[in-house]
Amino acid sequence: MENHSKPIYSLKELILYFLKLGTIGFGGPVALVGYMHRDLVEKNNWFSEEDYKEGMALSQLAPGPLAAQLSIYLGYVHYRILGATLVGLAFVIPSFLMVLGIGYAYVEFGGIPWMQAVFYGVGAAVIGIITISSYKLTSKSIGKDWVMWGIFVVLALVTFFTEEENIWLILGSGILIWLLRVPPKFGKETTAAPMLSIPVLLQIPATVSQSGKLWQILYFFTKAGAFVFGSGLAIVPFLYGGVVKEYQWLNEQQFVDAVAVAMITPGPVVITVGFIGYLTAGVAGACVAAIATFVPCYFFTILPAPYFKKYGKHPAIKAFVDGITAAAIGAIAGSVLVLGKRTLTDIPTVLIAITAAAILFKYKKLQEPFVILAAAAVGLLLKLFILP
Question: 52 phi and psi, to 5 degrees?
């Protein structure tokens, strides 16, 4: 297997970075992948632009939470299985412990009305944060290629109107750029074929015996981790269908609170599964739900990773990856619009979002958690003293 140049960082440094990101990285998948690009590619130069693009493409091709998969892939780049495993754990564990704590408080104190007030401000600020992240990611990755911009616009619109990511359009974008830039010589250019088969294989339905609540949780959240494409955002409609409608583990208000918890805690949005698991079956339920959701995405990242590393520099694969990257960023932009539509419901939320985006655009070195804290305070003040 080909290896990249010797890393200029230690595995310990990478683990500490992802522990920190998992502890203070607010804003959901769009923001998190933006922070990784800013910190690890631009600022520290630990990874090349190609490493990052390959990771983004693989994370989009495979099902599961985008930010968690990208962290696992980056851990794999120089430190292989050990790096992927430790980095993935470091990224997920801080927010998992936080949602456990919040779950305990939620059950003990009978709901969290103050959290709705906090989320009112935080949710709006998060839209501003991810808008800036998406803008930076787009301008950096797409450049001036009009075909790539076309792909970006189509995916953004489709994601916005359908409120879900379309894996076939993402795949098709990769194939389009591949055919335009490096027309295949049939019989020779077959290296992309194994990667193209992955999403097809993942559509195979899974069945398992469902005796007992923990088994139900294991079965349902394994499906969530293995069959939902895109960011943590994409998993929310799937969770709603199972958790509220099918199994009736949570009522509507509890589910809305679970999404709020995901948004006001740092780290991957999909960690809300820990909160849902806790409300359903205590600490055991939280652990089973989190493990069941993250284990499939771990394997869907590390198993194809060697092939991405080996063939990533191949012109056909590089073109394929570029097309998928443009589509992925378009889908992310569409997700920002969907979230904005749901979150910015009145004039104060719109003003908070615009202010957060403007502040981060102007003061580029300002850390996002400070904006989140300020927005939380504004939300509390507005909800408790001004708004009905």
Answer: -65, -45
